């Protein structure tokens, strides 16, 4: 299996100017230090792509009242990951900017930062719509990996903390490939792009996985690709302090 660790940027990495005046970010973040001591190529670092993209779009890449990125930020990170993946897997078919349409910005409720202040119902935010166009539109069938029972049929799995392995199947994906993907909450907005690219994705939050379980899933599912994605603020957790074997 091809193994990739994917690093996503914190919101303040992309928009440091909106931090309070009393916050002075370190010149080298914890993630920078981690990357400096790992073998070259261990991580796919999507931070430079989003830093560059923030000046190219009038739409925001993250929610104003939430720590998470929106659909546009997720797409730009996935595009950066795809470009890196293409270097080692040149035969893969991948989504391009021609396959993505940015829709109008709609109003939505406040996010997790507003909820911490207990004013989520008062603060409003913006939702940037993203559409995968043409025959690449995604309809995901979701199955319990343990039982094989279909549990949902939707365009995007919305569970931010998947406790048990969930199998995402997309009939018209660009590649008939099996992926094992351990993710965090930032992976939710990215799931439609991953599902449009790979036909079978075994999906699980890394907080609910162990090294032994990962080994069992690799043995029983036999994935062609193993991806573990992590937001920058979690990059020093136990899963990510060592490079891949």
H and E order:
EHHEHHEHEEEEEHEHE
Number of strands: 10
Q: Which structural class do you get from the secondary structure elements?
A: alpha/beta
Straight-line distance between termini = 12 Å
The overall average pLDDT, rounded, is 88
Sheet with the most strands? 8 strands, mixed
Poorly predicted regions are none
Radius of gyration: 18 Å
Strand content: 25-35%
Work out the helix count: 7
**Strand order of the main beta sheet, please?**
2-1-10-8-9-7-5-6
- Helix fraction bin: 25-40%
Task: Specify the overall morphology.
Answer: globular
Task: Offer a concise description of the structure.
The chain has helices at 11-14, 30-36, 47-53, 71-88, 112-116, 187-197, 211-221; strands spanning 2-8, 43-45, 100-109, 124-132, 140-144, 150-154, 166-169, 175-183, 198-205, 225-231. It has 245 residues and is of the alpha/beta class. Helix 3 packs across helix 4 (71-88).
């Amino acid at each position: 299996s091809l193994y990739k660790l994917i690093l996503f940027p914190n919101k303040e990495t992309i928009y440091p100017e909106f931090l309070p005046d009393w916050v002075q970010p370190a010149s080298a973040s914890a993630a920078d230090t981690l990357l400096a001591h790992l073998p070259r190529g261990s991580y796919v670092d999507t931070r430079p792509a989003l830093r560059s993209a923030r000046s190219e779009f009038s739409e925001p890449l993250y929610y104003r009242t939430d720590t998470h990125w929106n659909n546009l930020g997720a797409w730009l990170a996935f595009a950066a990951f795809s470009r890196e993946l293409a270097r080692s897997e040149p035969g893969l078919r991948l989504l391009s900017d021609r396959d993505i349409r940015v829709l109008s910005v709609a109003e939505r409720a406040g996010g997790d930062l507003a909820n911490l202040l207990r004013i989520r119902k008062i603060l409003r935010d913006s939702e940037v719509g993203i559409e995968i166009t043409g025959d690449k539109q995604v309809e995901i069938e979701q199955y319990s990996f343990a039982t094989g029972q279909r549990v949902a049929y939707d365009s995007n799995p919305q569970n931010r903390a998947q406790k048990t392995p969930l199998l995402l199947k997309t009939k018209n994906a660009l590649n008939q490939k099996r992926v094992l993907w351990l993710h965090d909450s930032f992976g939710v907005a990215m799931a439609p792009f991953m599902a449009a690219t790979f036909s079978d994705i075994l999906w699980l939050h890394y907080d609910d996985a162990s090294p032994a379980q990962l080994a069992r899933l690799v043995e029983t599912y036999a994935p062609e690709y193993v991806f573990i994605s992590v937001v920058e603020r979690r990059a020093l957790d136990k899963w990510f302090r060592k490079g891949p074997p």
